[in-house]
Amino acid sequence: MKDKSPENAEYEALMSSLSDGIMIIDKSLKITRINTGLTRILGYSPKDLIGKRLRDITQATNADGSTLPSIEQSINMLSNSDSPLLKIFACRKKDDTKLVIEAVISSYKLNGRLAGSVVVVRDISEQAAIDNAKTEFVSLAAHQLRTPLSSVNWYLEMLAMDKTGHLSDKQLDYLDELALANQRMVTLVNDLLNVSRIDLGAFAIKPEPTDIERIINTVLNELNNEISTKSLHITTAFTGAVDQYQIDPKLAMIVFQNLIGNAVKYTPKNGSIDIYAILDTQKLLITIDDTGYGIPSSQQEKVFGKLFRADNVVRRDTEGTGLGLYLVKEIVEKSGGTIDFTSKLNQGTTFSVTFPSGGMKRRSSGHQLAAIKKT
Amino acid sequence: MKMPQTILVVEDDRQLRKALVSTLKDQGYEVISANDGEAGLKMALDVLPHLLILDLLMPKLNGQELLKLLRQDSRAKHIPVIVLTNDASPESIKEASASGAPAYFSKASVSLDEVLEVVRYHLAK
């Protein structure tokens, strides 16, 4: 280590001139080396850090304040795989100011054996603050848009009510189209509002005893027009005590409206959709299995991203906000569940959602998400 | 002839207020309206309408406060109240129903026809 060869001096100079922070962590998770960038970002001196574990120094949380597996756990997870892990954490500097950092964690080997991890740390507090301001703006704008949208809805309805004079079939047809367009806008605004609330970490989860079968049937009723127009064959089956399951009924509605809505929308005529809910001592498993267009394998990893729409369906149908599955994944994961899918092009897609057998994880603080009323 | 029943609409957004007032008038109801909570409360206690349609987020006195004060008045506490709002947080729903609002709707998703149905239901009693 104390080798003062020219190569090493050059290496040391390079390390200390980097703006990113670098720390080397050994197998016992203790910090063994750091560069100047890291002391600048965290505000801790090398003396504070070397030989310590990170969790002894600062408590890291998710960017929205929720707890997360510690950096150490992430590093442990990494020892089993070779690809680097990218994590965003919120933590505090030595002087207690808040900090949002992006960490890329890679394992390194010496003589073919795992020796420890290299963590590259970047201060993204400023970007995070800008991101937050943007999200707050979207949230505010979406909220403010709802009142004029309600106005448009109501005045269209009044025109169609015939109290203002008789309208021709053509005029009524055009009013219907306007109402439909407006309803799409309401859906989009509600989706945007929900996404922004989720991104701000501010949505409440309030589980109460709920009949899963009833929720799924309500969603199927809402979609009845499209189901019968396309002659889709729907099968549902419920196993276990799913009529008293602890779930937030509004969030469950959003989840099922999106998953079943997608299955209906992206399954061609005469196709079938099977919906199963099974509650056992381990978990509640809900699967939604369709014989639809499927998701191209090249795009499957993007499915839960914001504004994602698969190439094969964009060509068929220009509607859709691309926010639905992002919302669903966030709701499911924040309430202690998991979501996964398998899909084959032109054969179909199966989404599986699980929740803990005891119900959704409660979170009291935050806004209620807006219910999506589909047309 | 039967006297028309009186409905008070308390809503600060002019366009939504106008839509509600016109639609209810077209159905033959006597309709009065206020554009903030303070004026709404005064009108409610002066007129004692048969039904109240109430927004929650309003200047001066919000809908929740209006509802509470209304329920403290022995002459007004029985008046059925339909809450129409865009603030559908679980807290505000709970608070409104605790103060005795029998119906609660999100404006972005309720149609005037559905509002009329609930109005008829409460006034037929």
Write structural notes for this entry:
Chain A is of the alpha+beta class and 375 residues long. Chain A is built from 12 helices and 12 strands. In chain A, a hairpin with a 3-residue loop joins strand 11 (338-344) and strand 12 (348-356). The N and C termini of chain A lie far apart (68 Å). With 125 residues, chain B is α/β, with parallel strands linked by helices. Chain B has 5 helices and 5 strands, in the order E-H-E-H-E-H-E-H-E-H. The mean pLDDT of chain B is 86. The longest helix of chain B is centred in the first third of the chain and has 13 residues, at 14-26. The interface between A and B is medium-sized, with 24 and 19 residues.
Characterize the main sheet of chain A: 5 strands, antiparallel
Biggest protein-protein contact in the assembly: A-B, 24 and 19 residues
Largest sheet, strands/sense/barrel of chain B: 5 strands, parallel
Provide the gyration radius of chain A in Å.
Answer: 26 Å
Give the distance, in angstroms, between the N- and C-terminal Cα atoms of chain B: 19 Å
How many DSSP-defined strands of chain A? Answer: 12
Q: Which ranges of chain B are low-confidence, i.e. pLDDT below 50, for 5 or more consecutive residues?
A: none
